[in-house]
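Q: I have 462 residues here and want to know how they pack in 3D. Can you give me a structure?
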Amino acid sequence: MATLDYVEVPPYATRLRSDQSNHDVRPAPKVITSLPRPEHSPVRGTTTATTPLSPTKAGSNITSMLLTSALQLPSNAPAVPRMYGVKQGTPRLLSTRDPLSIPITTTNFRRFVAKSGPIFWLQDRIEEIILWKRSWKYTLVWMAAYAFLCYFPRLVLLIPHVVILGVLLGTHPAIRKGENLDALPPKVTQPAPPTQPSEGSAEWLANLQAIQNLMGAVSDAHDFAVIWVPYFTYSSPYMATILSIVLATFLLMILAVNALPMRATCLVLGLLPFLVTHPFTQHSLIPAIQSGLCPLLNGWRSRALRVVDDDNLEDKHWRTELREVELWENERWAPGTTNSSEEKSKTEGSWSKTHLKPGERKAWTRGRDGWSGVPGDGTSEVSNLTFSLGPGWYFVETEDWRPDLEGSWAGPEGADEGGWVYTNDAWLDPHPYPLEEWKSAGSMTRRRRWTRRIYYNPSLSV
C-alpha cells in the first residue's frame, strides 16, 4: 500500500495557479492600505516632539468658534440655563438639567476656563514635588511628612486644619510684607484677590491650554484602557483563565493581608513613586536596566501584542493561511536646535523624515534595502500605499500595522524599545542605540520594520 509523504512548504514559496482550460492571465489586484500611524501605535516611538502653541494671542470668540465647529445642534435649542426644582428646594439631577445647547455650553465653558486655574496650579505643584523639578530638599520634606503620617496615621484628621492654617499664615499681611504685627493698625482689611482672570488674558489662555492637554491625556488613557475591556466583560475566550487567576490570587491575598505590616506597606508604596521619578533613576538606572533587558522586554511585548491580535481574529482568519507583509520606516538625524526643551538637554538634534537626503531611500519603503519606496516625494505627507497581493489574499480587517519590536532582522542585538534600529550615515552597522561617534560626525540614520498580516480566501477573489 502506497503512503503519502508530507512536505513542509517554506514561507517564501509562491502559490501556483491551477492549470484550467481557460488560460486567463490576470494581473494581481492592487490593494490600497494606509501607512502605519506611529502616533496611534500601542508602542510610543522616540519621535520628535512638536512645540506646543503658547497662549500669546487672544481671540474674543475662540470659545464659540471651537464649540460651534464641534457641535451640530438644532436651531431651537435654549440659550438660557433653566432652573428646575429651585423653588421647591429639590436637587437638580442630570436628567432634569439644561438640554444640550451651544449658547449654554459656551457660557459654562467660559466659566470653567476662568475658574479652573486653581486645579491646574495644584497639578503643577504636585508635579514639582513628585518629579523633583523644584529642589531635592523640597521633595525630601514632603517625603518625610508622608513617612511621619504613615507611622502616626491618626494625624490625617488634622490635615484640613493644617491646610487652612497654612493658607492664613501664608497670606497674612505681616508675613507677606515683612512688617511687625504690632505696628499694623487694628482691623486692617485687605482687598480681596482677583477670583478669576479676564477672558482673553494670558492666564485665561493658559487655563485653556491646560484643558486642551488634559483632554488629550484623558483620551490617551481611555484608548489604553479600552484595549483591556473585552477581558473583563466576557468578550474574550481567555475569560475563564483570567477568572481562575484572579480567584487564586484573591485567596492568597486573604492569607497575606494579616501578615503584612500596613504602616510599612503604605510607607513603601507611597515613597516608591518618588524613587522612580528621581533624576538618577530616570537618566541612569532605568536606561542601564533597559539596555540589558531590552531584547527580553521587546520579546514579551511583541508576544503580548500578538496575543491581543490573535484574540481579535475571526473564524475565517483561523481557518485559512496567514502570512505577513512588511514595510520599512526610514528617518535621518540632523544636528540643530530641537523643539523640545527636555530633548535639547540631552542632545541637540532631531529625527525626521524630512531630513532624508535627495536621491537616497524614501520615508516609507517596501524593501529592507530602501529602494522600493512609496511613489511620491517620500515625505511623511504620503498617506496611502499600494500593495500587489496575489489573487485571494487580503489584509486582516481586525488589526493594523504593528512595529517589529524585536528587530531580529538586524542581528542578535535587536532594536530599541520603539523598534528602531540605528545605523551610520550609509545605513550600515546596525545598533539598537545611536553611537556617540555618529552624533559627533553630524549624521546618522535609523529604520523600523512594520508588519501586517494577510489571509487567503479564494471565495472572495474575482
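Q: Anything worth noting?
A: The first strand starts at residue 30 and ends at 34. The first helix runs from residue 62 to 70.
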